[in-house]
Design brief:
two-stranded antiparallel ribbon, globular, 50% helix, mainly alpha, 10% strand, 3-stranded antiparallel β-sheet, 7 strands
């Protein structure tokens, strides 16, 4: 019932992270696995919040019932590093004190708001620690490609200025761990809502669909 209701909705392009997160909850109903640990989960029908989940024998997580963490793979500090609002005290609180950072950027920068709500950069994790681990160099082989493609997309779309060495590493991961059907499903859903192209995913999914079509014809 939950799945049928959510899939029946038509969504507008999100304008903030909370909105984007809610849409991603419905998109992930097709493949209920966290990104970094690949833990299977299902939504708890007895909970009032869609964030409440039940983990299905996940060895990486000690609890069976817990809150799912929806986070940005590329952090706000990284994609907002070149914005004035991130480093300069251009915002003023109600008490009169000046401040900067993510809170300031959400109030003053439309560019930051777009980057923060980009659904290609949002995924579920079993914990905040797992989210932080996904931003490190040492990753499970099974998710290197997934995470690399997110970083490559964000760098290309928002001109983040990643180093040549870093881009080479992500491209290696992308080639070693190719896209899955679940990734392509999410790509199509997100593209339909956001209207923002992801060329790497588009070409990768075309190759996958061609390969699957040839295999089924044999």
């Amino acid at each position: 019932m939950i799945i049928s209701i959510l899939e029946a909705r038509s969504y507008k392009n999100p304008t903030n992270f909370a909105h984007a997160k809610n849409i991603m909850q419905s998109i992930y109903l097709n493949d209920l696995k966290t990104l970094y640990n690949q833990c299977e989960f299902k939504y708890d029908p007895d909970a009032c919040s869609m964030n409440k989940v039940v983990y299905n024998g996940c060895k990486a997580h000690s609890k069976t019932h817990d809150d799912l963490v929806w986070g940005r793979v590329v952090s706000g500090t990284e994609y907002g590093k070149n914005l004035e609002c991130m480093s300069e005290n251009i915002c003023k609180s109600m008490s009169g004190s000046l401040y900067h950072g993510a809170r300031c950027c959400r109030k003053t920068s439309s560019r930051y708001q777009v980057m923060e709500s980009d659904m290609f950069n949002i995924a579920p994790f079993i914990s905040k620690r797992a989210l932080e681990n996904s931003r490190r160099t040492e990753l499970p082989e099974s998710v290197k490609g997934d995470i690399a493609r997110i970083y490559l997309y964000m760098n290309s779309t928002y001109k983040l200025g990643f180093s040549k060495k870093r881009l080479q590493r992500y491209n290696i991961w992308h080639n070693q761990d190719s896209v899955s059907e679940s990734e392509c499903y999410r790509y199509k859903k997100i593209y339909k809502i956001q209207g923002r192209e992801n060329p790497l995913m588009r070409s990768s999914c075309v190759r996958l669909e061609t390969s699957l079509s040839k295999s089924s014809a044999l």
